[in-house]
Each structure stands twice: as C-alpha cells, then as structure tokens.
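User: Hi! I have a protein structure encoded as tokens and I'd like to know what sequence might fold into it. I'm fairly new to this, so please keep things simple.
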C-alpha cells in the first residue's frame, strides 16, 4: 500500500492497531465500503467504516493474501474510520471483513465479503491503451486577443438574445475542445470576460462552476486527459483570490473521471471513476471473459482524501440493462454514470447514460432502491417522460427531477433519435408514476447532442440549458418556456461539457496588468485584471520616474481590457489603479515603461 497523503496523516488520528482499545460494539449497524457483494474492488483499496470510530475484533483476510494487519485512520468528521491494509490485495481474491460490531450487508456469519477486480486480458489492452483525445488548439479569428495579456486567447461569447427577466448572474463554462484555447471561463451577464485560465493540451477542463467549500465560495473544475470519453485526472478547488485550496483525487487506486465534481456541505466531494475489468458479459449476449467498464461513485473527504462512500455499478446493476450493443472485444460500457445528486441524507440519485435511466442508491447498503426509465423501470412512465442518454439529473425536493435529455445515445427499436431537450419530470414514488411537467427545446433549430449537456434551474425559476458536446449554444427560458437569453461560443467549433449561471465575486492575488505605447502627444494604455469583479473604472498615473507618478485621469471600465488614451507629453512611466463603485482602490498594477512608437 502507498503511504497516506501528508494531509491525512496530519489532520486525522492514526491508531497503529487492528483493534481500537476501549472499543464497544456500536448500537447501530456500521456501513462498510466497499460494500458486501462488490466484485470489482481495487487491490489498493482502503476499507471504510461509517457510523462508528471503534470496532471490536476487526479482522481482514484475503483468500490469496491471508490475514492483513494495518492501521486505522479516524475520519475528520468523527463519524467513521478507514482501515489501511499493510499490503495490497491480489487480483480476483475474495476479501472477508469480520467484526464483533454489526456490519451492513454482512452474511449469516456476520462477515462482509467483497472481491478484488480481475484486470482485462492482455488481448484487450489494444482497445484500452492509447493516446488522449487530441485538440488542435490554434488561434482562430473569433478568439479574443488582449494587449495586456497576450498569453490569453479565449473563445468569445456571442449573445443573440438578452431580454428583461433574464438572469444577471455570471456565465460559467469550460471550453475543453475545438480550434481555440481551452480553459475555465467566467463571463458576466453581458458576455464580457471576467476570468480565463488557459489549460494546455493534452489536458482538458470539465464541469467548471462556483461552489461552496467549508462555508466559503470557491471555483471548481475537473482537469485531466480524456481517453475515448473517459477521464483520468483530478479536481481543482480555488478560492476567491484564485489560489489553490485543494486538489481532489479519486481514492482506492482509481482515477477521477470528468463527469462529476460536486462539493457537499460536509466538506466532501462526490466524484466518478471508470475502471476496465474482466467480466462475464454472457447475460448481455457477450463473451464470458469480456472487458467491461465499471462505473464507480465515491464520496471523498476533500482535505484528507479518505473515502466515506464507494459504490460499483457492476455489483448492483445487471449488464443486461445496458443499451449499447456489444461489439467484439471492444470494452463494453453498460452503465456510464455521469451525474451524482443528493436525494436525501440516505440516498443518492445517479444518472446512467448507457441505461437511459436514473437510479436511487441507498447510501448505507449500496442497494438500488428504484430505477426511473430504461429497460426495467420501477415506474409507469407517462407520455414524453422517456429519456435517451440523459445528463445532469437533479432532484428538487418538490417531487420533480430535471435533466438534460440528449434524445439519443443508443437506439431502442421503438424510440428513434430525437432532438435534445431539457425536461422537468414529476415523480410520485408512492404511486410509482412519472409525468412530464415541462420540456424545453432549442428555439432556433432542432439541436441533437449525443453526449454532454446540462439543465440548471435558476433561483428565480428560470431554466438555463447548455446543449452539450459539439453544440456551442446555451439558452435561458422562463418556467413557461419563453426564451429570454441565447448565447453561443465563438468559434462554433469550441464547446463545453456543461454551462452554469452563478454569482461570483473575485479579487485576484495577482496585480492588474498594464501595457502602454507612446508617440507624439498620445499614449495608449491597456489595462486588465484577470478575475477581478467589481471594477468600475481605471485611474492612470504617469510620470518621469516610478516614485513620482500623478493621476492623468480616470475612465470607465469597458471590457476585460480597457483602452485608455492619455494626451500630452510622452510619459516615461505608467501605472493603473482598478477602482470600485465608490472610487476605492481595489488593486494597483506594477509600473510600466511605455514602448516608443
């Protein structure tokens, strides 16, 4: 086993014993992860217990590797503990976890048993190994260019509709493929750039948004490499000054995927991982020794990397429910998780694109409570409620669930591809019925998106739809479906996994940028401050020495970069100050020497 990260060893209590002294059996059942019945756990897994920090007579034994000693690490929230074996488990072996403490999903002997994955056969590696997805990352004419930040060439945003009643919140997107530079991007309600961070290929950014971490506003996104639609990377968390607060990785030997990165009020992150495993595909009409992608859902403590929850699709969902055809030795992806949302304290809602269904997962046992849609729906699906290849499924606590219905990722015989849409579904879990409350279609043309996309319900009730991979559009609707905002990324070949409208206030650690040129009686000054909000105007200071600068005037901020013209004799030095709405100084640039024209 690898060593614990430094943050875990510093912030958690480490007990170097298999049995915690003074322990007593917990009154309630203690949850165990990996859950009993899991058949694709990682050899490097920790074993997490939730509901107690003390366990009586804990024993961990591998059918091949024998009994494991190890160390216990108490979870920072005080509600659980992780056991780190002193050496890894073996591929394919059965692990038995027993304790005098009552464990969730224990068998008749009181033990929880799970199996370690079997890796793909060597002949299937050619379908798995390869280079990450490419990206030309050129300099298209539609990209923006700035004198003061020549390193930044973000795609532009064209707004075709902006009516009264549309949101005033900022627009968050992460351009992750196409002809221009990739990077997380914030724009104001009028489309003006606020912040852009260039992410160089072969890395890509996904799922960029503002969230809250430990009560404070932060920016988050996933960053890494994409291999045939699956990601291997990490989560990034920045504070309002654009400093890195945390880096989040999947635990237990897995790699974090790009599809979901959601922070919780408890200081944890809900994330997804994909792992190729050897698996019996005969129930779905495939080979007994096929290669299959396992969808893994984890809840990770952001500060320490400890695992609070882990769920495996192959343990709980039959490969029969997959709707993609099996093609030879190509790895089969029967589930393909793409969204995790909290239903309540005891349940998660997981969207599985390749089943065309949503799943209610019991957080304690890992059992599937119900399936909405797909081949074996637990619900009577009303007219217009069937989804195909859906993304971004979110429950709202009022009996409704919203989602982006891609309209096609696989073909049912009786359900041909159809235009993508945003949907709000009424879900009656008692009567087991689903009804269509409303649907939202692109106003200009029929948009069909086979992958990605999102639907966000805004605080005032409006709906913001981003139309997914290959589609540069984003549309805001009123609840009744009237369009009040429409924008598209320029160039149109750039796109984003999801887009959001969210409030944000940032004040960078980095100083404002300034560049100037002078000739004759005119000096052209260009000022910008990447990430700053609240800047209303710029003050220019000029002079013959850095220590004796005087105000040469103030102009209103016009865009990400403001062009200021100073007339009179050519100054030897220039400086700018960013001013707030009351004239207060928010930031001051360094002193620049104008270039002579």
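Assistant: Happy to help. Inverse folding works backwards from shape to sequence: for each of the 597 positions I chose a residue that suits the local structure. Here it is:
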């Amino acid at each position: 086993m690898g060593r614990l990260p430094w943050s875990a060893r510093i912030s958690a209590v480490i007990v170097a014993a298999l049995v915690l002294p003074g322990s007593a059996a917990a009154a309630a059942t203690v949850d165990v992860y990996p859950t009993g019945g899991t058949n694709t756990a990682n050899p490097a897994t920790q074993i997490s217990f939730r509901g107690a920090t003390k366990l009586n007579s804990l024993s961990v034994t591998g059918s091949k590797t024998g009994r494991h000693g190890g160390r216990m690490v108490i979870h920072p929230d005080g509600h659980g503990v992780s056991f780190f074996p002193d050496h890894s488990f073996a591929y394919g072996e059965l692990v038995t976890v027993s304790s005098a403490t009552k464990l969730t999903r224990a068998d008749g002997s009181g033990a929880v048993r799970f199996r370690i994955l079997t890796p793909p056969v060597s002949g299937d590696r050619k379908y798995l190994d390869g280079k990450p997805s490419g990206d030309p990352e050129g300099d298209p004419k539609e990209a923006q260019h700035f004198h003061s930040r020549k390193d930044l060439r973000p795609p532009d945003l064209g707004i075709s509709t902006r009516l009264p009643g549309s949101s005033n919140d900022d627009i968050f997107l992460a351009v992750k493929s196409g002809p221009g530079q990739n990077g997380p991007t914030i724009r104001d309600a009028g489309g003006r750039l606020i912040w852009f961070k260039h992410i160089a290929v072969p890395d890509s950014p996904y799922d960029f948004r503002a969230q809250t971490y430990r009560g404070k506003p932060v920016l988050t996104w996933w960053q890494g490499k994409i291999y045939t639609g699956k990601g291997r990377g990490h989560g990034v968390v920045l504070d309002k000054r654009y400093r890195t607060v945390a880096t989040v990785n999947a635990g237990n030997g897995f790699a974090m995927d790009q599809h979901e990165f959601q922070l919780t009020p408890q200081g944890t992150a809900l994330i997804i991982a994909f792992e190729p495993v050897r698996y019996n595909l005969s129930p779905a009409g495939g080979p007994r020794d096929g290669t299959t992608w396992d969808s893994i859902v984890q809840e990770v403590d952001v500060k320490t990397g400890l695992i609070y929850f882990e769920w495996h699709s192959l343990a709980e969902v039959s490969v029969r429910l997959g709707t993609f055809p099996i093609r030879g030795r190509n790895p089969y992806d029967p589930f393909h998780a793409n969204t995790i949302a909290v239903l309540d304290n005891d349940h998660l809602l997981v969207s599985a694109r390749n089943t065309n269904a949503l799943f209610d997962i019991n957080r304690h046992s890992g059992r599937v409570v119900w399936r909405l849609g797909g081949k074996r729906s637990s619900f009577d699906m009303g007219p217009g409620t069937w989804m195909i290849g859906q993304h971004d499924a979110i429950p709202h606590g009022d009996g409704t669930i919203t989602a982006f219905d891609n309209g096609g990722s696989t073909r049912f015989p009786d359900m041909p591809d159809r235009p993508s849409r945003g949907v709000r579904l009424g879900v009656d879990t008692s009567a087991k019925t689903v009804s269509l409350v409303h649907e939202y279609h692109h106003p200009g043309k029929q948009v069909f998106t086979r992958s990605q996309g999102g639907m966000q319900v805004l605080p005032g009730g409006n709906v913001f739809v981003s139309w997914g991979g290959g589609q540069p559009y984003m549309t805001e609707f009123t609840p009744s479906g009237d369009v009040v905002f429409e924008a598209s990324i320029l160039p149109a070949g750039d796109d984003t996994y999801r887009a959001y409208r969210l409030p944000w206030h940032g004040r960078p650690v980095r100083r404002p940028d300034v560049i100037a040129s002078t000739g004759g009686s005119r000096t052209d000054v260009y000022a910008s401050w990447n990430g700053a909000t609240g800047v209303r105007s710029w003050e220019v200071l000029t002079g013959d020495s850095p220590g004796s600068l005087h105000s040469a005037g103030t102009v209103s901020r016009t865009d990400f970069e403001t062009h200021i013209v100073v007339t009179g004799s050519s100054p030897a030095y220039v400086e700018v100050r960013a001013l707030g709405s009351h004239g207060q100084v928010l930031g001051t640039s360094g002193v620049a020497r104008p270039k002579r024209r």
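A useful reference point when you look it over: The longest helix spans residues 6-11. Feel free to ask if any position seems puzzling.
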